Fold:
Amino acid sequence: MKFTRQIESAEKQYMQILEEFFISVYNEKTLSSHGIEHHRRVWNYSKELLKILPLKSTSKASRLASELIIACYMHDIGMSVDPGIKHGRYSRELCLRFLSKNHLPPFEWVDVLEAIENHDNKDYAGVNSMNEVLQVLSVADDLDAFGRIGIFRYSEIYLTRRTDPENIGYLIRENAGKRFENFIKTFGYNIELAQKHKKRYKILDDFFSKYDEQLPSYHFGTKNPSGFCGVIEIILFMMNNGLQLKDFFTEQEKYTKDPGILLYFSELVSELLAEHTVL
Structure:
């Protein structure tokens, strides 16, 4: 299987020191949706993409898995400094610290540093098409924005950036649409993979389409959140009160009895467990 040995070698050499460094820097309570579990999933998506990647430069193939695992674990670590659009730059700076700490010369990891700094360019303009690390990292990061996990991740980061709840549905659908289009453009030749992630994208897009339909008749701040807007209100409540997902799941009946909200969080748990995410 393509890249199997390189992936195993990269994980053996780098995974432990990457996770130790990440945990030492990132405060999960600040932005849990972009914590270490997100980075683990992005690495797993990268491994999925490596299996079908048509390499532009076979001379780089032997290093690609090692470059990707570092890029995957470092790409959003800058959220610990700034959760805004400049986080890629801070992630690059923290990656430089990681490289220095582990005696890895930065000049040998140029593609990694470029990928980390530019991975969140969702207009996909001016992206270095010869940088396979950036290409795979960008798409792998996009794939973790779909499904019920994506609903939670998008909501938390947009609300953290103080986006008005009345606008997040439209903005998320627009952003996710660009991500899905780029995935299809880059890896859509693999029909099985395209169909798999199209279903996950549709879960997110359908949710926020229905969210926008409910929005005109919904009033945030109600004592009884309900429906699709109620899911977002619960996420906002969790953020404002420092609650983690595991806190909510322990006593969810304390916060809501709405069947729609409970269904979403039940399905979210199933997705997280399927992705081996620790709650």
